[in-house]
Amino acid sequence: MPSMPLAHHWRSLCALPALCAALLLGGCQTIPDVSGWNLATQALAGSVVGGFEAAAAVHQDIGQRLDSQSGFKEQAKGYQDAAAALTRGGEAYGLLFAAMADYSASLAAVSKASANSSATVDAVAGSVNQLLGAVGVAGLAGAGFELGKLVASEAIKIKAARDFAEAVDRADPTVARVADLLVSDLDDLAKTLSGTKREPIMAAYNLAERDRLDYRRALVARLAVLQADVGSQVQPAALPGAPRPTAALAEKGPAEELQRVERLLQAADSWYLPLQAAIDRAQKSRAGTAALVAQARKAALAWKASHASLATAAREKRLPDTAHLLSVVTRLRELVADLKKEN
């Protein structure tokens, strides 16, 4: 679960595109078009925030419903903690994926340029200082501090790159570290979500409608008895010599009560069907959130791998392969759409 300092740190990563893109501009060279990779990255970034916002809203609603019923306080806290983690995660991931999108857009712009002046390197130096300054102001420790040192050392290496391919290759450790931080954070979020259980949802939702559910169950039980009674009256008429029920019996017997019970059950649908829909929606959203986090993790790893392959594609002067990244992003977008629909 991302801490606030980590979110501040990821905000500083928005300087990373300027850092790497400027360095990649050095020298005259033939550079392959990476616009396809950029579009895949943009699609990835655009999918994330909305999905986590929808998931947080659903978990908050479930938590409130559980909290309103006695005996579900502990389960309610699990959902409320998950909602808070999803909200914080969505904000932090939004910043990080935006930085990734800016970075890919910078590379796409670079791939269309054939040359650039040495002034670009000077601009990069400023970007590095700003990034490291942001890390320092955030007071990060542990992974954040290590990342700050990594960016500094990699910036020096990238400066010495001879061409686009080598520059991308030298930038890759920094990009990989950013992706690894995201994966680690998503793993922590998945652990938090594992504290939510599906069973309390149905129990708490039904408890709120306990009296009406008891009444409906009684109607269903009575319906079964009446259907059997009516069937026993009608069926013997088909047997040779069996007496047929009189008109009065057919009119005032179990058939009449059966119709009345059926009408009452139909009337109960006005509250029963929405209740079942709410339970189903909550269950699907809970499962969908877990799938979203798992798919976001896959997307981060796919993006990391696709970036590593860019250098090879550049050296071989061919288009980078984005098929796997696009496939992962497509599934991520489907999960986000489902969560928004259920919200």
Please explain how this structure is put together:
The protein has 343 residues and is mainly alpha-helical. The protein has two domains: 4-197 and 287-342, no CATH class; 203-273. Helices cover 82% and strands 0% of the residues. It is built from twelve helices and no strands. Helix 2 (16-24) runs antiparallel to helix 5, helix 3 runs antiparallel to helix 11 and helix 4 (73-111) runs antiparallel to helix 7. Mean pLDDT is 74; it is low at 1-29, 114-143 and 235-246. Residues 1-20 form the signal peptide. Keywords: Signal. It comes from Pseudaquabacterium pictum. This is Lipoprotein.
- The percent of residues in helical segments reads over 70%
Distance between the termini: 23 Å
Largest β-sheet summary = none
Rg, rounded, reads 31 Å
Counting DSSP H or I runs of 4 or more residues, the number of helices is 12
Poorly predicted regions: 1-29, 114-143, 235-246
Integer count of domains: 2
- Tell the overall outline: elongated
SS class: mainly alpha
